[in-house]
Amino acid sequence: MSVDQNSWDSAVHHLYRDAYGYIATGPRRHEDWVLDVLALMARAVPDPRGWAHVDDAEKGPEREGNPTWPFAAHPPEYIASRLEEIDRDSAEDLLLALTESGCTLANLRYFDESPEELREMARTVLARYGDTVTFHTNVSKRGSAPGTLDFTLESLGYSPMGVLMEDCGLVIVSATEVGLFWTFAD
Fold first, then answer.
1. Measured between alpha carbons, how far is residue 81 from residues 76, 124, 146 in Å?
2. Closest listed residue to residue 167, CA positions, set 181, 151, 149, 178
3. Which of 90, 107, 99, 101 is nearest to 149 (CA)?
4. Average of pLDDT values for 101-127?
C-alpha cells in the first residue's frame, strides 16, 4: 500500500482527534534509534516530509523550560529497557487503542466509522514507514505468542515514559524514519 501526505494527515488527525497525544515522525539518524526517539520527545527534529503531527501539549504552560513535557527526561538506557518489540498486527491494534486514554479497542465505539474503516486508517498510517520496519511499545498486554499484544485482556500494563498518570505508545522504526505515537491520561 502506498500513501500520500493527504491520506496520512487525514488518518492521523481523525484517529487522534479525541486523544491527548503526541504523534510525530523524525529522521532516523542513528544506528541506535532510541537516540532518535529522544530527539522526537524533545521536539528537536522536524518531520522529514513535512507531514502532520499532533502535539496536544505544545502550548501548555508545563512545557516552559521543559521541552520533553509530558514525557519525562530519561537517558537512552531507560527508554530502551522499557520498549519491547511487537508484530505488525499488534502495532495496528495499538494505533487504534491509542485513540483515547485507557489503551483499549473499546475506544472504537466513539467513532462513526466501522472497525474495518478505522483499521484501514491505521494501515494508512503504518504504510508511510514501509514494510521493513520494527514496532516497539511500552504497553504490556502480552498475547500468547511472543511479540503480540492481546487487547481482550482487561488489565493494562505499561512502563511509564511520561509525568502524567498513564502513557502508552508505539515507536515505529524504519531505515530512514522514526515515528512516535503516544497518548497520555491524567
1. 9, 29, 17
2. 181
3. 90
4. 92
3-state secondary structure of 26: strand
Set of cell numbers at residue 70: 509530558
Q: What is the mean pLDDT of the chain?
A: 92
How many Å apart are CA 17 and CA 56, to the nearest integer?
10
Taking alpha carbons only, the member of 97, 104, 88, 107 closest to residue 148 is: 88
pLDDT band at 100, cuts 50/70/90?
confident
Q: Give mean pLDDT, residues 24-31.
A: 98
* Matching residue, cell 523524525: 26
Give the mean model confidence (pLDDT) for residues 106-111: 88
- Taking CB atoms within 8 Å and a gap of at least 24, the contacts of 101-108 are 101/19, 101/20, 101/166, 101/183, 101/184, 101/185, 102/156, 102/166, 102/185, 103/139, 103/141, 103/156, 103/158, 103/166, 103/168, 103/183, 104/151, 104/156, 105/151
Distance separating alpha carbons of residues 141 and 149, to the nearest angstrom:
5
168 - beta bridge partners? Answer: 183
Domain boundaries along the sequence of the chain: 5-29+69-185
